[in-house]
Amino acid sequence: MMLDEHLGYVSDAVRLDRYRAAISKVVAKGDAVADLGSGSGVLGLLCLQAGAGRLVAVDDSDMLEVARETLMRNGYGDCSAFIRGKSSQIELPERVDVVICDHVGYFGFDYGVVEFFADARKRFLKPGGTLIPASIRLNVAAVGAQRCDELANGWSAEGIPEDFHWLRTHAVNTKHAVNLERGDVLAAPAVLGDIDLHADNPEFFSWNAELRIERDGLMHGLAGWFECELAEGVWMTNSPLAEAPIRRPQAFLPIDEAVRVKAGDTVRATVMARPSDHLIAWVVEFPASGQRFAHSTWQGQLLTPVQLMQRNPAHVPHLGRRGQATATVLGYCDGQRTVAEIEQAVLRDHPDLFPSPGEISGFVGRILGREAE
Amino acid sequence: MKLSDAVTIPPQVMARTVGDETVILDLASGTYFGLDPVGARIWALMGERKTLAEICATMLEEYEVEREQLETDVLRLSGELMERGLVVPAQ
After folding, report:
1. For residue B8, which residues of chain A lie inside 8 Å, CB to CB?
2. For the segment A199-210, what is each residue's pLDDT rounded down to a tens digit?
3. Which of A223, A326, B24, B91 lies 20 to 30 angstroms, CA to CA, from A109?
4. Is the Cβ–Cβ distance between A175 and A253 less than 8 Å?
């Protein structure tokens, strides 16, 4: 699955062309570059091919090994370093001239780039260094399409057992990925806002836009997409209206009830976001009818009462069964015992940790694999 | 605050209830605030733009509670919510 996703990124010729153009403008011979959330390492590879002298690839997934192997096979092993982890939790061996990161998501702000770069500017980038992308322009549009209707109302559609219809509430409070076509857009997009990634940005954004409906139709919600300025004059977009977009879905933010709109109508959109917490809220108002819809991904999260209670700052947490089991395993990880000895100790001293010895052994292996070095 | 006051909930503030648990999120500050079931009922009535006196009147019909105690509790909670920016005075 992970390779499938990255095949999509690497095989996107427009995306690679845009990044190649930006890198050729920004990266100078001998530059040190950090590729954050490097995935397959393709952007770092482009930087090295353009003359970068040193590369640090940072990724929190197994894709880091793909990047390592790929760069080694291409003769860049000696000038590349690989760090596994979230960029906000690691240190780089040196400050770099360029930081590159493609985590712009579907909407532009929804996949980590804003907080990654806020941290990278302070800790990774040399004074006068460059970020790729440099800025993100957010666009919003009114959309109506069968594919949007299915995303919003699929859980209450004909054929779905009524027992599951309650899930529609979650679906209309979710940011969906959607592949829109030009004909799905009911109004010319409005610029919601610009994020200058070289500047200090707030942790909370609130943007407003007024949309002028251009043709009659049934509106199912808002769509959002980005235009990234990768380097001066080099832009990359996933707009369904663009001549040459990259191959990436747009964000779809549903409204609770499809609204029939006419050419000339005005729709007011407010989008609020807290990117670091992956939270988005949106309000859509129809002045002509007085209708108003307010949604948020906070409402869309599938939470148990316990999970909700944990958000209450006054709540006193206790280790659950899984937490106790994790603490037990890590308690044996003392820098002396081998993996086999830890497994034996857990099986001997805590035979009731899980219902079967096989599950205990598997759990020990997973915890050590994730938490130990 | 006075009982004749009403409050409104800003658009960046939202509550979520699952079972008996209600938690308010202020998206602007990223902070959460927990409510017990009675507080959650007061919050719901605040969302209907009722004055605090109207909220008390409604709740007196729903709960076995002394008016004085209820008014004190409603005023205290609304004051705390106001202090945290989770509600603002109604225009």
Report:
1. none
2. 999 999 999 999
3. B24
4. yes
